[in-house]
Amino acid sequence: MIFIRLVHTAIELxxxxxxxxxxxxxxxxxxxxxxxxxxxxxxxxxxxxxTLHYQAHESMAETQLRQLAEQAKQRHSLAAxxxxxxxxEVPIGQASVLVGCSSAHRSDAFAALPxxxxxxxxxxxxxxxxxxxxxxxxxxxP
Amino acid sequence: xxxxxxLRILLFAGVRDAAGCDVANVSVDHPVTAAKVxxxxxxxxxxxxxxxxxxRLAVDGQYVAADHVIERTDVELALIPPVSGG
Lengths: 142, 86
What we know:
The structure holds two protein chains of two kinds.
Chain A: E1 2-7, H1 13-16, E2 27-34, E3 38-40, E4 46-56, H2 58-75, E5 78-86, E6 88-91, E7 95-103, H3 106-123, E8 126-132, E9 137-139
Parallel strand pairs in A: 1-5
Antiparallel strand pairs in A: 2-7, 3-4, 4-6, 4-8, 5-7, 8-9
Helix pairs in contact in A: 2-3
Chain B: E1 3-10, H1 13-19, E2 23-30, E3 32-33, H2 34-44, H3 49-53, E4 56-59, E5 62-63, E6 69-70, E7 77-80
Parallel strand pairs in B: 1-7
Antiparallel strand pairs in B: 1-2, 3-6, 4-5, 4-7
């Protein structure tokens, strides 16, 4: 099973944990990406973020997330995958993304999480805009 | 044989802010490649030209290569600047 959702409200692990249940799995693994307050720039300066805002090309993002979940399922022998990404305003310290998967053995579930996150951060059309404490804003285009 | 036709391209994030709108309407000569479409959008929105230069084009929800030829039947074009989800 694959569950892909773009949401505009807080992401709670308890809302999603049962989605990867499968009696033939022995490993459930989760990763939550959380909005961070401090960013150290290349020059060594520290910028303090007040809040973050996420924008997406929603239909394409859902398609891309489903494709990467299907690839991860095949590549890592997963039973189920959940990917939830929050859009709009995300206060500091809250989850912006939740990725979960289940597999028969832990090595597959452990390996699948960074694989999926790396692809999400490379290809899925979602962008974050930082609002710093001085009220300046910046779209992040790495 | 070439012919000029309008294209409508969805804009996002830093490019959208620089353009002040969420769609770019450009006129191009068909047949046209994805690279030429991106170049044309950069000319129209010079404030975001460096960012547009590192952006990718998506056709109907899928990334396409620079030499991909845009078809008149393509429903949706989107300019995708470097992403930062997660």
